[in-house]
Fold this protein.
Amino acid sequence: MSSDLVLYGSLREEQSFPPILIRAMSFEKPIIAPNLTIIEKHIADQKHGFIFPAGNVGMMTKILYSAISHGKLSDLACKIASSGRSHAKNLLASDTVLSYAELLEKLLQFPSESMLPKPILSLPDELKNAWQWHLLLEPKSHENEQVAEGTLERKEQLTGNSSIVFSMEELWNISIFSTNGSENGSVGARDEIPGQVDWDEQKYTEMMEEIERREEEELEERSETLRGTWEDVYRTARRAERAKFEIIERDEGELERTGQPLCVYELYYGPGTWSFLRGGALYRGLSLSAKGRRAGADDMEAADRLRLLNDSYYKDVLCEHGGFLAIANRVDRIHKNPWIGFQSWRATGRKVSLSTEAERVLADAVQSGNNGDAFYFWARMDKDTRSGIAAKRDPHYNDFWSFCDTINAGKCRVVFENAFRQMYNLPSNLTVLPHMPIDGDSWSVLNSWVMSTPSFLEFVMFSRMFVDALDAQHYDKHHGNGTCALGTSKTERKHCYCRLLELLVNVWAYHSARRMIYLDPQTGSMQEQHNLNDRRGQMWVKYFNFTLLKNMDEDLAEEADDDHPDKRWLWPLTGEVHWQGIYEREREERYRMKMEKKRKSKEKLLERLKFGYKQKSLGRYTKPLFNTSGKAESNATDH
């Protein structure tokens, strides 16, 4: 590398550390880079390199002047380059070792009776930072090296820097290839390695055991078995009767929908909106009102999926966004498709629901995956008449925040910024309104869109924390006296958060670097909105990064699980509360229950062996009384 220093000018957030910087540091060249997340994680400013705020050209120029003095590198730059070279040797050692440790943690299966090791995440940071590459260096090769039987001569011959991994490998190889011969000529460990014949015998044994198991099951079905008491028979019959209704609900539409890549949930309120639903194998209804499901259809009720929606207050303020939270709550129990979508009953009322041709084009697009992890929508903001200026073709109508202010009593910007600031605990003097460009393209409205299921869960993770921050600021006033900053009329105040949450998916999709594609609901033609390449440098990726959102979600879950706060807190009520401690506690509880069951079974067996098995009496027998003549007494009297 012939350059004197390396200036890294890319402002794109990367998932891995840039290789060009590692190469420059290895050649003892000072580096100048923006304060991206992955760079700040590994590089300390003024120690391993120079860090400047992303997009701040003045600061970058000032750093260049300090690094170069009289046509050559300054003393500070040379010192930082030397420190960076030693730092580059073990730059990614900690992440690599930690990744392999997490992989082993998922692959290794320990017996139930063994003591489980501590999770990798519980290791102290001091230990992780001490991991270096020389611990994994391969030892020097030794030609013509023989291993003596029953000895560790090869281990004694090893020189140089050998790691723990290779030392364990040497011991393992010695134990495998050393023979355990005895006086009678027994075979060694090498001969105990199973061959193809052994595997064939094992397969044949397993097959015969399976045949015997099936024969025993058939014999048990044909033989007479005790049905238990009448109470047991009655309880079993009632259980089968209840299960019968669940089987009836699985109609042909659900079976056909299971094999498709996409399922669209239609959001509606009660019988009055049934006529606006599309129906068919692609769709499944989701009722947002209690007891509002269609008879004979495979619909669901949102309140059954999320207990929070049984509260009429939150059912009204969340509106259709509550349906998103209900589907995401334990989504694997109801949704098996790789893509998920929603369509409001209002879309049909405004004639922007998908036609048959558009449905086919959308299904083919998600099946092929040509557009990647994209966000599809078919209800455009510039076609929405709620602002009252769509017909005038106002050039500012595509301004996202202006439209949001129009339908939210002019307070959308202020409310969103305050909730966003509280969500990330940002300082009050910082402007935190995400940039939404005015580039002639449109945005999604009416909660009618499709995205991949993992992306949907990521969006719900973000929206749960946003809704919690929004509710924390407005609950007291709105629930106390009905005052809502986002509405003026009685209906708008009742559904306070609905119109802001309807547009929230646009902010998330734009700044999380998803392709946004408009699908014409009539013809099925597609057009990308807000081209992804043009967004570079404008997206707030650091706030919408999945790793950051996941860490925030786990912190909230740990707080809800450990502290059990008595104050009113919305976030734990909007979905699942899971973190690593809950998984460990559940695993320990299952292990405890298993051992308790074994203990009771053993005590019961010992009791039977000691006292014998006694059958319970089926009824009570009363012996008749006899008089002195041998005849049974009678209660009848002669007159």
The CA atoms of residues 163 and 324 lie 51 Å apart. The chain has a mean pLDDT of 80.
